[in-house]
Amino acid sequence: MPILKRSVLSALGNVLFTLLTLGIGATIVALTVLPPLLKYQTYVVLSGSMEPAIHVGSVIVATAADPNALQVGDVITYVRPGDQENVTHRIVEIKGMASGRSFVTKGDANGANDLNEIRFDRLAGKVQLTIPGLGYFFKFIGSPQMRLLFIVVPGLLLLGTWLWEIWRPEAKPRPPVEQMSESMAPALMGREQPHASKQNIAIGVAPDAAAAVPLRR
After folding, report:
1. What's the rounded Cα separation, in Å, for the pair 115 and 199?
2. What is the rounded CA–CA span in Å between residue 3 and residue 95?
3. Cα–Cα distance between 217 and 206 in angstroms, integer?
4. What is the DSSP letter of 43?
5. How many angstroms separate the CA atoms of 16 and 30, rounded?
6. Distance (Å, rounded) from C-alpha 94 to C-alpha 2?
7. What is the structure's pLDDT at 210?
8. CA-to-CA dists, residue 91 to 9, 147, 175, angstroms
9. CA gap 106, 167 in Å, rounded
10. What is the dihedral of CA 111, 116, 117, 118, to 10 degrees?
C-alpha cells in the first residue's frame, strides 16, 4: 500500500509540474511571441491613472479596431503626442470633424480630461483584456536572456523527469525464501535410510520411493 501511494503521489506531482510548466510557457509565448502574428499588442501599466479599473502592474491586451466603431466608455491605448509614451485611458467624449473623428480621453483616477484630443489615421488600439499583477512578472524577466531562462529551465526539468521515469534502475527482486534445512525436513516415511536415499538420487529411484527423496538436492 505505501508503494502504491508513492506511485500515485509521484504521478500527481508530475502532472501538476507539467501543467505549471506548460501554463507558464504558454503565457510567455502568448504575450511576447504571438502578438505580431495574431495582430494584437500587450502593454504593462506603469501608473495608477486608471485605478481601480486597471491596477498598476497589470498587463493589458489591445487589438486593432476601426476608430469609427469606438464608443464613449471604451478604453484605448495610444501614443501621447510629443513624448512617444503609450497611454491607456478611457474615452469620455467623441467629436466629429471633417477630417475624421477625434476622442477626448481621461484616466479614471484623474480629476481632469487629457489636454490633447486623440485622432487615429488608421486603426485604434482598443483594450480587450486586463491581467492584474502579471506586469511585475514581465518586468522581472524583461530581458531576452531571462525569458529564455524561464522557458528553457522548466523544459529541461520536465525532460529530466521523463527520462528518469524511463531509465531509472529497476528495484532488485527480493531474494527467495531459503529452503528449509535438513533438520527441518519432514520425517521419512517408513524406516529412515538416509545414505541409501542419497545414493538413489544418482542412480534413479523407483516411483514408489519418491516420497523418500530429501527436500534439498
Report:
1. 116
2. 72
3. 17
4. E
5. 21
6. 69
7. 37
8. 52, 34, 79
9. 61
10. -110
CA-CA distances (angstroms) from residue 52 to 47, 59, 105? Answer: 11, 14, 17
Q: What is the pLDDT of residue 98?
A: 65
Confidence band, pLDDT 50/70/90 cuts, at residue 154: confident
- pTM of the predicted model as reported, rounded to 2 decimal places: 0.55
Which residue stretches of 33-178 are H helix?
35-38, 134-140, 144-167
- For 131-157, what is the mean pLDDT? 75
Q: What is the grid cell recorded at 84?
A: 512617444
Q: Is 113 helix (H, G, I), strand (E, B) or coil?
A: coil
51 close to 132: Cβ distance less than 8 angstroms: no
Structural domains in the chain? 2-163 (2.10.109.10)
Eight-state DSSP code of residue 133: T
The three cell numbers of residue 166 are 524511463
52: helix, strand or coil: coil
Q: pLDDT per residue over 73-106, tens digit each?
A: 999 999 887 777 889 999 999 998 767 789 999 9
- Label residue 39 by pLDDT band (50, 70, 90): confident
d(CA 67, CA 123): 6
Q: Where are the alpha helices (DSSP H) in 44-193?
A: 134-140, 144-167
Q: Which three cell numbers stand for residue 163?
A: 527520462
The pLDDT > 90 percentage for the chain reads 23
- Kindly list the distances between the CA atom of residue 188 and the CA atoms of 41, 182, 201, in Å, as whole numbers in the listed order: 92, 11, 15
